[in-house]
Design brief:
single chain; six-stranded mixed sheet; six-stranded antiparallel sheet; elongated
């Protein structure tokens, strides 16, 4: 930020004051956060950052605003003495969505707007030859007529054929049977209610018209107009004629075609309806991919999603995706990038005065609401681009994006809003961002502040921390060793504080390089002809038994290379070898699906581990012990004790998730919820088991004078000193200590863990499961949620893995991890179509 907006948090009425915060591991802390400023909360993983920002600030603000947000549902009261200065809260946290239905366009809220633009203004094209299509729907005719001023009179007529005298009489009888009162034969109006009528024809044949209705227009006339047009269709007419006598005395005759057909090849075409754009319904979805945009190409040993050729990924039926507006079809806009859509829409709005549609009203003027919608769509697309995600295709499934990309799209929804004075609480906004994109992120956060907002972020990235207005550093350690305010103030004040983050905030700080002795190119595995998505048919060498990072700007093709090309191809090769015993090359169909020609040099690998999954919302039944895999050996240990055998207890009795072992009062949750006031809930330790989760009979069993509840109350480090000789359990506890998680208590519930702690627990399970088997580990942003001190532990772990003969490859932006890697592969030079090339490679 060029001109920091410093503000003393003690200024009366200009700060959010928190006193006595005790959520999770917070130790009765008090902080003041300046309003209208950008504040970062930093500190080691598990130091209490999320507890303060989301467990205290967000939960209390949400509770105070809950009649607006939750319709009166009870909300838990955060454990604090006093909080003041809160405003309407908006939380932006990683919520990784795996659904194939949700697209980039729907996530940022532009898909409905694009649909309306193409529905109202788009021109139909023949699905067979691309020719012009004529015809409008009954609804569009009714909407067009309703745009005339109230008090105007309209007569709706339908051509029913060229008739001679006998034909006129038979037609009159047919129309009378349909309940119509009048018809026109040439210039003569006939009363169909009369028993007889006299008619002389001046010509042998005359054009006949059914007079369907005549009415005075008003706002409530829509259903009647729609019914009249539908009647014209029932009579077999290809068109409807509307004669409008306007209130000011002028008149106008308009003809609407009801026949949807191609002018070039005469092929009938389906009418367009607003709901035809809803690709999540069977009526509108592409019948081949069922609205997913992709299909799974499968063989005996592999299954991978590839773009549906029937709809080119556009998800909808042909008459929708071929609709044209501004020189582009709906399919081209929806399957294109946000960058391309922004240019298309900007050009469209520049020509807004040239656009017209008879369906929209008299004189073809655009509705103001449609213009506002287009401008809002442009604003949202502009934010996508400014946040460095302009390379994303609008149709791309949200589940295929990284957590960082999903985080930025969630941020777009808030940036595009127009609410002022909001308290924005954002978790790790720099997650998944290349260093070159941090400036864009800061500019986006400035826009939130410009709307009188207050922004509080949890963050580890020193480059971003150096740019904030106010910094609160928690620590000094993690878990029970954290939860204290180690420093608070401006950047300079925190730099000299000696806190855990202080060393990384110096302007001349640089990350140490990996030892030079490690920079030796060994045997390589090679991906030949990688060409999926934006990859430009590249050959990439991955050193084996080494730690390699794949870097590059966001959208340069890193994740595509590792997780869409290498991983499925290698998984297929390993499965075929395990099944047949032969190291066979991938076949043509698999190569096409994986986007590679072949993979070479993989034969020394035995196992592939992809640590790309992210743990979703956890309940109170999940604990550190269950997440780390410590419960199974613990249950077996206690079930083998003499006390358990005498009581007839099995391993199920030592699980709080089984009815045999769970506390009958709290059902194994360890907490109970009580109503403290009309709309307030409080959680407290279960009165029956004291928070230990187990039934009395289970807690009565002892091992080394400790019940299983007592054991779970220990930290992993303390438990390791007691259970060093217990097979299975010792390995889990030792790994937790090695992974920097020794401070965690085994009974700590999942919802209280930080993102970094959850990430390391996930990695721990993978490492323990593989043992000494030669393994390729693929990581997607492994530093997400980690403090620099935690990343140091991660680097040591990676070096241990490679020293044991394993191979580690990670997609990463973090300069600390990149500097420590043995080798670096950089893709680029740009994003999307401008990326997908090798910029830097080993050797």
């Amino acid at each position: 930020m060029a001109s920091p907006r410093r503000s003393l948090p003690s200024e009366a009425g200009k700060a959010i004051e928190v006193r006595g915060a005790r959520a999770n591991n917070l130790k009765d802390i008090s902080v003041a956060i300046p309003k209208g400023r950008l504040t970062a909360v930093s500190g080691p993983s598990g130091s209490g950052k999320s507890s303060l920002v989301f467990g205290v600030l967000y939960e209390e603000a949400r509770r105070r605003w809950q009649p607006t947000l939750d319709g009166g549902l009870p909300i838990e009261v955060p454990p604090t003495d006093w909080i003041s200065g809160l405003s309407f809260p908006v939380a932006v946290q990683p919520k990784v969505i795996r659904s194939g239905r949700t697209s980039v366009a729907t996530q940022v809220g532009i898909y409905p707007i694009l649909s309306e633009l193409f529905f109202h203004l788009g021109e139909a094209r023949c699905t067979a030859c691309g020719g012009d299509v004529v015809g409008v729907s009954p609804r569009e005719i009714a909407e067009a007529l309703l745009t005339y001023s109230d008090g105007s009179t309209v007569e709706l007529r339908a051509p029913v054929g060229l008739c001679d005298l006998s034909g006129v009489r038979s037609t009159a009888e047919r129309l009378r049977h349909h309940g119509l009162a009048r018809m026109r034969a040439g210039e003569t109006v006939l009363d169909l209610g009369a028993e007889h009528f006299y008619l002389e024809l001046e010509e042998p044949h005359v054009h006949c018209f059914a007079v369907i209705d005549r009415l005075r227009l008003k706002r409530s006339s829509g259903p009647r107009l729609l019914e009249a047009v539908e009647m014209a269709r029932q009579l077999g007419s290809d068109s409807v004629i509307a004669e409008i006598e306007m209130a000011e005395g002028t008149s106008q005759v308009r003809t609407f075609s009801l026949r949807f057909a191609c002018l070039a090849c005469a092929m009938p075409q389906p009418e367009i309806h607003r709901t035809d754009f809803f690709y999540y319904t069977s009526r509108s979805a592409c019948p081949v991919c069922d609205g997913q945009g992709v299909i799974s190409e499968a063989n005996l040993s592999w299954s991978v999603p590839t773009q549906c050729q029937e709809c080119d990924g556009a998800r909808v039926k042909p008459h929708v995706r071929t609709r044209v507006l501004g020189g582009s079809t709906f399919g081209e806009v929806f399957t294109g990038t946000a960058d391309r859509a922004l240019k298309w829409l900007s050009q469209l709005l520049e020509r807004r005065h040239e656009l017209s549609s008879d369906r929209l009203g008299k004189g073809g003027q655009l509705e103001p609401a449609l213009i506002r919608g287009a401008e809002e769509c442009r604003e949202r697309l502009q934010w996508v681009v400014e946040l460095g995600a302009g390379y994303l295709e609008l149709h791309r499934a949200l589940g295929s994006l990284s957590g960082g990309e999903q985080q930025r799209l969630a941020l777009v929804r808030e940036l595009a809003g127009h609410i002022h004075g909001v308290l924005y609480l954002i978790e790790e906004p720099s997650a998944g961002l290349h260093p070159s994109d941090v400036a864009r992120l800061l500019a986006a956060l400035e826009k939130l502040l410009a709307k009188d907002g207050t922004v509080v972020v949890t963050e580890h990235d020193p480059a971003l921390l150096r740019q904030v207005d106010y910094l609160i550093d928690l620590g000094p350690g993690s878990g029970a060793e954290g939860g204290q305010v180690c420093a608070a103030g401006t950047l300079e004040e925190v730099r000299i504080s000696g806190s855990a983050s202080a060393p990384y905030l110096a302007p001349n700080f640089t990350w140490p390089k990996a030892p030079e002795t490690r920079q030796v190119l060994r045997n390589c595995m090679t991906v030949v002809g990688a060409s999926k998505h934006t990859l430009q048919d590249i050959d990439v060498h991955f050193p084996l038994q080494a730690f390699t990072v794949v870097t590059g700007v966001s959208g340069s093709g890193k994740s595509t290379l590792l997780f869409d090309c290498l991983a499925p191809a290698l998984r297929s090769l390993l499965e075929v070898r395990n099944t047949t015993g032969l190291a066979s090359p991938i076949g043509p169909a698999a190569a096409r699906a994986f986007g590679v020609a072949r993979v070479e040099g993989w034969e020394s690998l035995a196992v592939l581990v992809e640590t790309t999954e992210r743990i979703g919302k956890l309940g109170y039944r999940s604990t550190v012990a269950t997440l780390a895999g410590a419960m199974a050996p613990l249950r077996a240990l206690y079930a083998m004790t003499p006390d358990a055998k005498v009581r007839g207890l099995t391993p199920r009795h030592f699980s709080f998730n089984c009815s045999e072992g769970a506390c009958p009062h709290c059902f194994g949750k360890g907490v109970e919820t009580v109503r403290a006031a009309r709309v307030e809930l409080l959680r407290r330790a279960c009165r029956s088991c004291g928070g230990r989760r187990f039934a009395p009979a289970t807690l009565a069993v002892r091992y080394r004078d400790r019940s299983i509840g007592d054991t779970l109350a220990l930290t992993a480090e303390a438990a390791l000193g007691i259970y060093q000789t217990v097979p299975g359990l010792q390995q889990v506890l030792q790994a937790m200590v090695d992974f920097g998680l020794g401070y965690l208590t085994l009974q700590q519930s999942g919802p209280t863990l930080s993102a970094g702690e959850l990430q390391r627990l996930s990695l721990l399970r993978h490492v323990l499961r593989r043992g000494s088997t030669t393994t390729l580990f693929l990581f997607d942003e492994p530093t997400q949620g980690l403090h620099p001190t935690d990343i140091e532990s991660l680097i040591l772990l990676f070096r241990r893995l490679t020293a044991a003969g394993h191979t580690v490859i990670a997609v990463e932006h973090n300069r600390q991890l990149i500097s420590a890697a043995d080798f670096e592969i950089e893709l680029g030079p740009g994003a999307g179509p401008a990326g997908g090339r090798l910029v830097r490679a080993p050797g």
